[in-house]
Amino acid sequence: MGDTSQLIQQISIYALPVLLAITLHEAAHAYAAKRFGDSTAYMLGRMTLNPLKHIDPVGTVLLPLLSLMMGGVLFGWAKPVPVNFGALRNPRVGMRWVAAAGPLANFIMAVMWVLLLKLAIVMNNSYSEPLALMSKAGININVMLMVLNLLPLLPLDGGRIVESLLPPGLAYRYSRLEPYGMWILIALIFTGVLMPLLNPLRQLVYHLLSLFFYLAGGRLAGRSHSLSCLRHAARCGAGFVIPGPSGIHTMFANRILSGMRPTGSLHLGHYHGVIKNWVELQSSHDCYFMVADWHALTTNYDDVAIIEKSIWDMVIDWLAAGVDPEKATVFIQSKVPQHAELHLALSMVTPLSWLERVPTYKDQIEKLSTKDLGTYGFLGYPLLQAADILVYKAGLVPVGEDQVPHIELTREVARRFNNLFGREPNFDELAQAAAKKIGKQGKQFMQQRTAYLQDGNAEALLAAREILAASQNLGVADRERLAGWLENKGKTILPEPEAKLTAASRMPGLDGQKMSKSYGNTITMREAPEQVSKKVKAMPTDPARVRRTDAGNPEKCPVWQLHQVYSDHETREWVKQGCTSAGIGCLDCKQPVIDGVLREQQPMFERAEQYLSHPDRVKEIVFEGCRRAEKVAKETMGDVRAAMGLGF
Hints:
The chain is mainly α. It is built from 27 helices and nine strands.
């Protein structure tokens, strides 16, 4: 059911952007051909925005659907627009413009999707997230359709442009290569050569789109993964190959930071309590998943031997559980030095009493009384956690209720930092100048601000925020100034994150207590099947069932708790009936749990195998994740250093 839901979600996200991209691509070719003298496409009804005229039933519908169902790349093509280049008034010049029309149309469409993405950010309602996902897909599809078509290879548009620029004799010989162009292109795709060839032009286009987004009052940042669109078939037929979802990330409010300490093998409690939630979030949010190795040192500074091995084992467990490095950024905390730099900067302005009042501080000291925790590292770990969050300007942090005080501390630290360092020279003058840029509603914004600051009118504050969110004329810096000025604060340098409460998941251990390594009651995520069977069979059961013929009570049996996780309703009813009537033995009761655990672990073993047999691949994933994370962290630290007078 989950696979079907994911397939439907992918289709719903990509269908409209793909149809619009190929329709405008083909229609642009047809319009340009007529404009330069060839009416073939016009006479055949192809100079139209009706997508049905451009869809190839096999290439545009059947093949992409089959490839999605099989879990492969999204592959297909459109019905090619027929162009008689010999009928053009000036064949060489006409060929050049007819070929360029398709990629140009895709660039214009990418700009339109950028504006829709901006609209999604401004709306900030229930429709924002699906619109943002579709907009990101539209941006990537059109960019890659444009860039790939500019490849100087016939029958691609770039090949046509090159052919039109060559001397006639050489152009003729070049055109003789066209029958082999498709096979060359396929070879480039499947050998992995294509993307490195296209990356420079692709990055240039993304920089141009970033400029459009900035001018629209937002920011287009982050990475763009291997999302490519392949023009296929003949002449001007637009085709597409889409290996995975978009990786363009734009909204800090949609950015998530979460991490785990590498203190040993992960167990099923980690999976159900944290990682399963990560796998769901990575498809809808900009996720940064951190190996918190510095945090491991706060309590395990006297035993570091386990840390390095635990790091790689833990990352493999994440990947085995379904964390996708194409969707999320996986990195190691200590490999991004900006964490420590921001921690140091924040320590200069954070009152000591704030750290001493964190509830988990005294609680952990009591629980770990055998350890010497009278260190600054342990006292300051909530501030390091705040730095972890703020260095990525994460808008959301998934936590349980017991961790909410840590997020509140992070918000207080960010608020204090912004108040201390957010008031630039001439801040009020700059803010007033920014308010004038809002246009007609600028005066209303000022009135609402006054009503809030003088009268404490909460409705006026909300109205002013709505005006600010709806304004299309502000850049990032002006928007941040006005957001702070509205509440008589400084410029927002470090946005305050929100806690994203996760459902409490008390994964039962083998003894009925919460699964924890400290209790010795765990099943690791990649436990050998024979060990799983042995551990579950050895679980204690209802003490009342001394003999096979004794009736029991499932509510008093630790195995019953695991049935709540791994068994369906029918199986649980069978267990309840069999246990209370002594119709089944305890070993009979345990077998469905064993089967459920093994069923859950099977895909984990399969995913893990590719990384266990190629350990360098894990290091490449982490290295790339650290590079991406550091790029974002450097931008934040640039703002922080400048605000603190260290930007020289």
